[in-house]
Amino acid sequence: MDTGDTAWILVCAALVMLMTPGLALFYGGMVRSKSVLNMMLMSFGAMAVVGVLWVLYGYSMAFGNSVGGAGLLGDPLEYLGLNGLMSPDALSGTAPAMAFVAFQAMFAIIAVALISGAIADRAKFATWMVFTVVWATLVYFPIAHWVFAFSTDDGSYTGGWIANTLGAIDFAGGTAIHINAGAAALALALVLGKRIGFKKEPMRPHNLPLVMLGAALLWFGWFGFNAGSALAANGTAATVFVNTIVATCAAMIGWLVLERIRDGHPTSLGAASGIVAGLVAITPACSSVSPIGAIIIGLIAGVACAAAVGLKYKLGYDDSLDVVGVHLVGGLIGTLLIGLLADPAAPAEASGLFYGGGAGLLGIQAVGALATLVYSFVVTLLIAFVLKLVMGWRVDEEAEVDGIDGDQHAESGYDLHPLRGGSGMLAAATATGTTVPRQAADEPAAAPAPNSEEMA
């Protein structure tokens, strides 16, 4: 065990954990004020559910020995309840196995939380919570095994087919996280249908400073996401760190330039979205390209994702917060461009088409991306249809129009006009059986208005 590597992995796990509250702020600011609490709670709810599932059987499904050696699924019983992983002899590389468990838990959490942006403003919270259980079990855990579980050289452990049999490069989760979540988001958006008023009334973000804060926290946490995937405090982590910086900067520039040309003005929402697009695109490629390659990936992702978010209006699906346009498109761009821009001088030591490596790597990357996309989309579609039949997905029309926060959580994100009224309020509350804040109940009744003689 190396204490430096252990410290690095634990710090990075904490950084990745911060990304989910950052996502909650990012998504929360993008919806209308009547939906902000529900939107944020969907991210926190995913954290609660997946964190427990990961300990019970999720880690074992993702990183247990492949069942039958086919590379499709880890043995769910091997590390049931993390059995045997607390031993001092249980190591993952040069760090305790439990450090790796913690790090990968954060990946699983945010992969599920990302999907929620596609169904903002209209989904029942209870159905969403059940969905997180089923989707993590049937989709994320198996795909994480495909992509992140590497076989040992001595044959004592067999990992996933994309990482080992296919040999695709995905350093930190372009396929397992972003293409996966983006494909699932598209499936859910199709099953739930459009929001009331989609394409007919403005649905602008209600709090852009909140969006910018969320984007900043995502960027900060993403250094743990990408550089932490080196699983050591070494040169690979340093190169990945730099590539994550410059790709994100370039993507923000690309998005803002396109907005300036297309719309006549750059926006703060565009800057925040460009940040996320660049982070998504560089995630799979951060160990296999040079910093110049990272800039190219970022620029392409910024422009392409900015263009892609408009597809929902042309194609008629309501992906509320552009999970498809940013995460699916950005993940595909980053994964496929490895086949063109992989630099043999980078830590992954792979050669893309532009570096004399031929088209073979591009084909491998395409197969890995397509397999993830198709599996996630089809299985999510089935899960969503079953839940629609059993529980129902949509809140009723009145709740959607008036505000999902009040309907689903009996709360308001902004209590800008608190009720006051003393005995009248108390009487009304008594009649309806509701409670009254103590300060309101204790207020004296307002004095009657003076008559004309008293005024004189």
Automatic annotation (TrEMBL):
<feature type="transmembrane region" description="Helical">
    <location>
        <begin position="6"/>
        <end position="27"/>
    </location>
</feature>
<dbReference type="InterPro" id="IPR029020">
    <property type="entry name" value="Ammonium/urea_transptr"/>
</dbReference>
<keyword id="KW-0472">Membrane</keyword>
<keyword id="KW-0812">Transmembrane</keyword>
<feature type="region of interest" description="Disordered">
    <location>
        <begin position="431"/>
        <end position="456"/>
    </location>
</feature>
<keyword id="KW-0924">Ammonia transport</keyword>
<dbReference type="InterPro" id="IPR001905">
    <property type="entry name" value="Ammonium_transpt"/>
</dbReference>
<feature type="domain" description="Ammonium transporter AmtB-like">
    <location>
        <begin position="7"/>
        <end position="414"/>
    </location>
</feature>
<feature type="transmembrane region" description="Helical">
    <location>
        <begin position="97"/>
        <end position="119"/>
    </location>
</feature>
<comment type="function">
    <text>Involved in the uptake of ammonium/ammonia (NH(4)(+)/NH(3)).</text>
</comment>
<keyword id="KW-0813">Transport</keyword>
<dbReference type="InterPro" id="IPR018047">
    <property type="entry name" value="Ammonium_transpt_CS"/>
</dbReference>
<dbReference type="GO" id="GO:0008519">
    <property type="term" value="F:ammonium channel activity"/>
</dbReference>
<feature type="transmembrane region" description="Helical">
    <location>
        <begin position="292"/>
        <end position="311"/>
    </location>
</feature>
<feature type="transmembrane region" description="Helical">
    <location>
        <begin position="237"/>
        <end position="257"/>
    </location>
</feature>
<feature type="transmembrane region" description="Helical">
    <location>
        <begin position="39"/>
        <end position="57"/>
    </location>
</feature>
<feature type="transmembrane region" description="Helical">
    <location>
        <begin position="126"/>
        <end position="148"/>
    </location>
</feature>
<feature type="transmembrane region" description="Helical">
    <location>
        <begin position="168"/>
        <end position="193"/>
    </location>
</feature>
<comment type="subunit">
    <text>Homotrimer.</text>
</comment>
<dbReference type="GO" id="GO:0005886">
    <property type="term" value="C:plasma membrane"/>
</dbReference>
<feature type="transmembrane region" description="Helical">
    <location>
        <begin position="362"/>
        <end position="387"/>
    </location>
</feature>
<comment type="similarity">
    <text>Belongs to the ammonia transporter channel (TC 1.A.11.2) family.</text>
</comment>
<feature type="compositionally biased region" description="Low complexity">
    <location>
        <begin position="442"/>
        <end position="456"/>
    </location>
</feature>
<feature type="transmembrane region" description="Helical">
    <location>
        <begin position="323"/>
        <end position="342"/>
    </location>
</feature>
<feature type="transmembrane region" description="Helical">
    <location>
        <begin position="205"/>
        <end position="225"/>
    </location>
</feature>
<dbReference type="Pfam" id="PF00909">
    <property type="entry name" value="Ammonium_transp"/>
</dbReference>
<keyword id="KW-1133">Transmembrane helix</keyword>
<keyword id="KW-1003">Cell membrane</keyword>
<protein>
    <recommendedName>
        <fullName>Ammonium transporter</fullName>
    </recommendedName>
</protein>
<dbReference type="InterPro" id="IPR024041">
    <property type="entry name" value="NH4_transpt_AmtB-like_dom"/>
</dbReference>
<feature type="transmembrane region" description="Helical">
    <location>
        <begin position="269"/>
        <end position="286"/>
    </location>
</feature>
